[in-house]
Amino acid sequence: MEELVFHPYDVRMSEEGEIIAIVEPDEYLKEMIENKETCWEVDIDVDYDEEEHEPYLMVTLLKDKGQIAMAFPYGEAWEALSEKGVISIVLLTQFDLDHGDTSDLISITVEIDGFLKGYIAGAMRMWEAVSEEIEEE
Prior knowledge:
alpha/beta
């Protein structure tokens, strides 16, 4: 079985500073969330969009043969992840989201470790230093 990649169709932030990624339900995704025998792995990287001249925090949650991939432009999400370090994955159809029906909602919350929080904080400081230098030129 090849690796399946899922992307949220909507990403929000809670009042508590937690990232909420809303993904269309899929049978394999449901199995990934319900499987308590394996753990979630978190991969974080920073990429730079040459056209937009903006850095993106690339967050990938991996488990079994699937992954949920997200990209966050520099800003609020970076800060929330470096401080709180919480991402909730919610399986919910766009129709149910639009109509406020959460009766079939399936979710899991993944907390990133201190090392990755530090990596994000360092990337934020690096981008702030680089962007200040560019502005001064």
